[in-house]
Design a protein that fits this description.
This protein is α/β, with parallel strands linked by helices. About 20% of the residues lie in helices and about 25% in strands. The longest helix has 28 residues.
């Protein structure tokens, strides 16, 4: 009888030890829960900004898709030194084909952007048509002329049938109120928008641009991540005017959203117009 009790006791101890060992093996085999990733490199939607550890200095390391921001050799914006601009009469002046259009406006979290779904506005660059996709703004200007920034800069982004980009940039200085931008500015969305806001009045972008359309041309890149290159840049020399109130209204939403100028490297800035 004692032998049976002794055996049963050993059996019970063995069962307990077996359960403990099994549980221990299960704990070892179970992978640790991966920590949540709150870094700037979150897959699919890397965060970037214009300041701090997600600012322009660090764009190239935030995501592999942004590598050109650090490693590219034809980056934008640049400082346009007038004494170094080459007169090249072999390149044609661009043809600007803009007509009064009703646009939509949005705040994409980085700038105010005006979208054009009409397909009716375009420019002709090197005998190739680029249709206007959108227009957006930076403060202060991204491009410099002789080392000087302007109060703001606007970018008219165009795309051709092959998906290549050409950007027409216009500089902005303090002056008279800009009538062409009046309705857009009356509806500036102060926070990031989920949907576009319709603008009621049509805008003729041709009238927005300066009367003198002398341009500087060079090969560059997007000025925001992914900083993709092979963008045909066209920067108008003569600035347009906006009132201090209009500039301050933009600055109240985006006080600083420009990328610093990038090295010119071996590139040449050209103009087809010598006057």
């Amino acid at each position: 009888m004692k032998t049976i009790k002794y055996f049963n006791g050993l059996l019970a101890v063995g069962i307990v030890l077996s359960m403990v060992g099994c549980a221990s093996r299960q704990m070892e085999a179970a992978p640790e829960k991966a920590p949540e990733n709150h870094s700037a490199t979150t897959v699919g939607n890397p965060h970037w900004s214009y300041e701090g550890d997600t600012g322009p200095e660090y764009w190239g390391s935030l995501d592999p898709a942004f590598s050109a921001c650090a490693n590219g050799t034809e980056q934008s914006p640049i400082d346009i030194e007038l004494a170094d601009v080459k007169l090249d009469k072999t390149i044609d002046n661009i043809n600007i084909n803009y007509k009064p259009t009703t646009f939509t406006i949005m705040n994409n979290g980085h700038t105010i952007q005006v979208n054009d779904a009409s397909g009716s506005n375009s420019i002709i660059v090197d005998n190739d048509e680029y249709k206007l996709v959108q227009m957006h703004f930076h403060k202060p200007s991204e491009h410099q002329i002789n080392g000087k920034n302007f109060e703001m800069e606007g970018h008219l982004v165009h795309k051709n049938s092959a998906g290549n980009l050409s950007v027409l940039g216009f500089l902005i200085k303090v002056g008279n109120e800009n009538k062409e931008l009046a309705e857009m500015w009356s509806k500036l969305p102060p926070e990031k928008t989920e949907a576009d806001i319709n603008l009621e009045k049509s805008v003729d972008l041709f009238n927005l641009l300066p009367q003198d359309k002398k341009i500087f041309r060079y090969s560059g890149s997007l000025t925001t991540p992914t900083c993709s290159e092979e963008v045909k840049w066209l920067v108008l020399e003569q600035p347009i005017e906006m009132s201090k109130q209009q500039i301050d209204a933009f600055a109240s939403i985006f006080p600083h959203n420009n990328r610093p100028v990038q090295p010119l490297n071996e590139r040449q800035v050209s103009t087809p117009d010598g006057h």
